[in-house]
User: What shape does this take?
Amino acid sequence: MSIQLLVIGLAGSGKSTVGKAVAARLGVRFVDGDSLHPAANLAKMAKGTPLSDDDRDPWVANIIAELNKGDVVIAASLLKRSYRELINKSVKQVVFAQLDAPKSVLEERLAQQGEAIRKDLLVAQLATADPLAKHEPGKIYKSDKPVDDLVRRIILDIKMGD
Assistant: This one.
């Protein structure tokens, strides 16, 4: 069974935590999607500047390239449906696990991580985020649940082809 999973969601949703745990249990590589951004994007994000669609194009291309290398779990925001559709057209087996939590939970997690600058990014993300549509391969998961429960559910769904 090929594993090409994208754990997606807003800042503070738990993408990296859940993604690492899923990858470890499945015995596949984990990649933090932020590491696939060009340097200019990383500089903008460090300043709290939201990225434009043009900024994200090379990032999405890098995600596609990473998925095409084989079994992998990637944690990335991928908030806009247009980005996910491009990936879905380019990678046949990709599955999305979108993590969703109330804004108050996301803000609390970011504050606990000492990432106050990301609060502005969260506001921008909330304004532009497209929820996973029924036609997209994957599922939305409530990420205010315990990590182990999320990981078990995601792996079960992958194995069942849900």
